[in-house]
Amino acid sequence: MFPPRWFIPLDVLFQLFTAVVALGIGLHALRGYLWIKERILYALFLAFMLLSAGLFVNGLTLAYAMSAGLNLGRKVALPVEVGYWAYYLLGILALSILAYAYLHRLRERNLALAAGGAAAATSSIVTYGPALELALSALLFIILAAQLAHLQVRRTRTAVLVALGFFLLLASHVLALVSQIGDLVYVASRVVQLGGFLTLLLALYHPRRRG
Amino acid sequence: MSGPQRYRSKGRIFADILRAVEEDGSAKVTHILYRANLSHDRLTKYLGQLEESGLVVRQEGTTYGITDKGRKFLAEFRRMEEFVEAFGLEL
Asked: How many domains does chain A have?
């Protein structure tokens, strides 16, 4: 779950760039929400802003660890510990909102339920690391399954891109889970994660191009 | 035989009214009633809100026209409809 030492500077850049991409998706949803005041757009905005914030915090945490010359993977300093917790909790909260939107389509329910569900899920987890990575993967699996079910009904190019984006995000967390195998697996997880967000961004601008 | 009525959000109802008005540049209330599938009371309420927001303009008697802001709203709604639909969700 920790980057190899030589990859940390690049990892910081990867995380910050991915955060900007997620922010772009969130702001697009916010723009739509400000125009047409649809709750689903607010949920998408909130989810991607939280994802972006988590990635940003993770980037800063890695930058701090690098500048302080900390050896990640052993006993880590409090700021790093807090940074990792924030990254995972923000990610779980964001994906819970997305999963909730998929499962209930945000009709009569309250967004707070999603936050409550996420809090309940995370409160039972003792440490960050594999367990939280697993929680993120499970949420992404739910989202991907819902998106694949949607593809059975309506297979547009954008819907395929969104499914691919979520698949790549899921793959990145699975790769992170098994990153002890080798340094390159960790690197691959970050590349795939960035690919996932870029694919979602591409899906976002695809309708705009035609619009 | 039509199936059960689909839930329509306020944004979608606004878009349906604006589409009906946009079709011919302007439209009478009776035409909008038919196209947007609304009761007279609800349509009157929504037309008032649309007029207040500057999305439609009352032209003469019971005829309404769409404004530039209304067209922009409609374009944004279509774009967001497609965006959200790509996520397997709906507005």
From this structure: 1
Chosen from A38, A39, A44, A204 to mutate, greatest number of chain B CBs within 10 A: A38
Q: Does B71 touch chain A (CB under 8 A)?
A: no
Measured CA to CA, the distance from residue B5 to residue B3 in angstroms comes to: 6
Q: Which of residues 94-153 of A touch B (CB under 8 A)?
A: 101-102, 105-107, 146-147, 149-151
Q: Which pair of structure tokens corresponds to residue A97?
A: 């909102």
Q: What ipTM score was computed for the predicted complex, to two decimals?
A: 0.79
pLDDT digits (tens, 9 = 90+) for A42-101: 999 999 999 999 999 999 998 888 887 766 655 667 888 888 889 999 999 999 998 888
Domain range holding A47? 5-111+119-210
Residue ranges of alpha helices (H) inside chain A are 8-36, 39-67, 78-104, 111-123, 130-153, 157-177, 183-210
Beta-bridged to residue B60, according to DSSP, are: B63
Neighbours of A1 (CB within 10 A): 17
| pTM of the complete model | 0.81
Task: Output the six-digit token pair for A162.
Answer: 């969104």
| H/E stretch holding B14 | helix B10-23
B36, B17 in Cβ contact below 8 A?
A: yes
Say what the pLDDT of residue B45 is.
93
